[in-house]
Amino acid sequence: MAKVFKKGVLGSMAIVLMLSGFLVACSKNEGGSAATTSPSGSNSPSPSKEPEKPAKIRVSLWDRANAPEGQNLGNNPIIKYVIDETKKIGLDVEFVSLPRAQESEKLNVWMASGEAPDVILTYSMDTIFKYAEQGGLWELDSYLAKYPDLIKNNKKALDQVGMYKGKRYAIPALKANTYAGPNMKIRKDWLDALGMKIPTTNEELYQVLKAFKEKDPGNVGKDKVIPWAIPAINQSMKAFFFGPMFGFGVNMDGPSNQFYAPDGNYKNGVFTSAVATPEGKAYYQRMNKLYKEGLISKEFVTDVSSQQFTQQVNSGVAGFVDSNDAPWTMTANTRKSVPTANWVPVEPFKRADGSQVMTVVGDYAMFVAVPKSSKNPDVVMKYLNWMVEPKNLATVQSGIEGVNWKNDGGVRVQIDPETNKKSTWVSASGDLAIVQQGVAPYNKEQLIKSVAATYPDDKQREEYANSYLTFYDIFKKFGKPNTVIDSPRPVAQKTVAAIEKHLYEGISKVIISTDFEKTYSEMVAGWERAGGKDYDKEISDAYKTMKK
After folding, report:
1. Quick one: where's region Disordered (predicted)?
2. SS3 for 94?
3. Are 359 and 242 in contact (CB under 8 A)?
C-alpha cells in the first residue's frame, strides 16, 4: 500500500514532459490521429422509435511500435471484440493511437487544440494536476458514483490517488500484482562459468563487469561482450538506473520522475534532487568510469528506441541490466539464441550502512482522465464499467477464451503461445485493460499450470515457477512504495519539462565525458538554470506541510 498524505491529490510515478505556459483549450471534440474508426451501429429501445445511434467514444491506446506484421489497431481480434461487444451497451468505440515515446508532447498538443480523445492516459500524477488546475478535465465524482462495480474493482487504487483539491479528476487503474517494478538482473550462467557470486554491492558489480569483459564467459567474442546493457536516456527507455543508484545512497524521497532513477534525498527538512547530491555525483562518476573502460554499451546515446538494447539482451551478449522485465522473460528471450542462458534477479545492493533499498509498485498504475472537450464523461464511465466485468476484463488482458486461452481452475492457460503473439500483442503491456493491470500473483501450482502449453517439459515449468517466486520474494522482502505528494505543485508544472530535457542530455554527456568534473559541473549549473533549486524547494515545503 502506498504511503499517501492527503492534501488534495496524488504525486506521480512518472512526471511527463510539459510545455511551459501551456493553456488547455476546451472547444473541439473531434480530431486527433485515429488509428481506426469502428463501424456504426444502433440499438432500438422500442419498435415505435427511431433506432438510437451508439454513443461515440474515442479511446487512447499507446503505440509501442511492437505490432506484428499485418497487425494494427484496425486489424486485431481483441480490438474487434471490444468494438462489437460495447455496441451491445450503446457505445461506438474508436481507438486513437498515442505514441508511447512521445506521450507528453502528443497530450499537450491534443489538449491545447481541443482535439483530445474522450479517454486520455498518463502515468504522471503531475500531468493530471496540471490539466485539472487549468480547467481542462471533467470532475468525475458524480459520474463514477453511478457505477458501483467499477468502484468496487478499483477501490484500492481509488482510495489512494486521482483527487485534486478534493475532487476526482482521474480513475486510476488497479495494479493487481504489486510484486513488480525496476529490478537488477544478471546472467547467472556467466557467473557460474567464472566461479563468481551474484554481486551484493556496487564494488562487487564493478569486479563482475570487468570479469565479463576480460574473460568472455559466454564465448561471444571479447569485442562483442556488453557487460552492462543500457539504451539512450529518454522517456521511453527500457533500462533504468534504480538498483546501482540506490546502492550509492541515492533515495526515492521525492515525487518520482520520468528519468527512471532514484530522484533524490530528503534530509533535515530539505529535499535535494539526485543530480545535486554527493551520492548522485559518486554514481555518475562510476558510470563515467565504466564507460571509459568499455563496461557499458558504447553506443547507448544513439539507441533512442531501445532496439540495440533489446538485441543485446536477446542475442546473449549482455551480462547485466536494470529494467522492469521479469528475469524469466529475459531468460526465455535469450535462450532462443543461447539455450543455456539464465537471467536471475539481484537483491538490492548493500550501502555503506548495510541497508538495502528498492521500490515496489503501488496499488495503482496508469490514470484515465476525461478532457473537457469530451461531450459526455458518463460514456467513459460506462466503458470502464463494461471492462470490469470478469469476461470482458479477461478478454482485454489475455485474448479470446477458447481461442487464445482456456480456464484451468482460475488460471488462464495459453492454448497456442506462438499464435497468441500475433493477436494478443495489443494487450501485452496492459494498455488495453485500462481499469486493471495484470492479475493477482499466482502461487507455485498456478504458475506451473499457466505455462502448460508453453513448456510441456515438467522441469521447465518448475524452473519457470521458481524464477517468478524468487522474483516476488525480493519485492516482498525489500520493496517500499514511493511517497505520494498529493498537493498542487505549480513550480514543477512550469519547470519540470526543462529540467528533464536538460537531464536527459546532461547525464548522457557526463557518462561519456573525457573531463568528468567539468561536464558534471556544467550539468548541475544547467539544472539550476532550468529551475532545479526551486523545484526542490517546492518539494521541501510540501513535506513540511505534510509533516513528513
Report:
1. 33-54
2. strand
3. yes
Angle, nearest 10°, between helix axes 490-512 and 532-546?
A: 130
Q: Is the pTM of this model over 0.90?
A: no
Whole-number Å distance between alpha carbons of 348 and 329: 20
> One-letter amino acid identity for 521?
S
What one-character-per-residue DSSP string does 487-509 give? S--HHHHHHHHHHHHHHHHHHHH
Cβ within 8 Å of residue 84, ≥6 positions away? none
User: In this structure, which long-range contacts are made by residues 155-158, counting pairs with CB atoms below 8 Å and at least 24 apart in sequence?
Assistant: 156/1, 156/363, 156/364, 157/363, 157/364, 157/365
**What cell numbers appear for 67 in the block?**
505490432
- Count of Cβ atoms closer than 10 Å to residue 446 Cβ: 18
- Cα gap 450→441, rounded to integer Å: 12
- Tens of pLDDT, residues 375-427: 999 999 999 999 999 999 999 999 999 999 999 999 999 999 888 888 888 88
Task: Quote the CA–CA distance of 394 and 105 in Å, as a whole number.
Answer: 32
Beta bridge partners of 190: none
In single-letter form, the type of residue at position 468 comes to Y
Asked if residue 161 lies in contact with residue 140, where contact means CB atoms within 8 angstroms, the answer is no
Closest CA to 428 of 397, 472, 405: 397
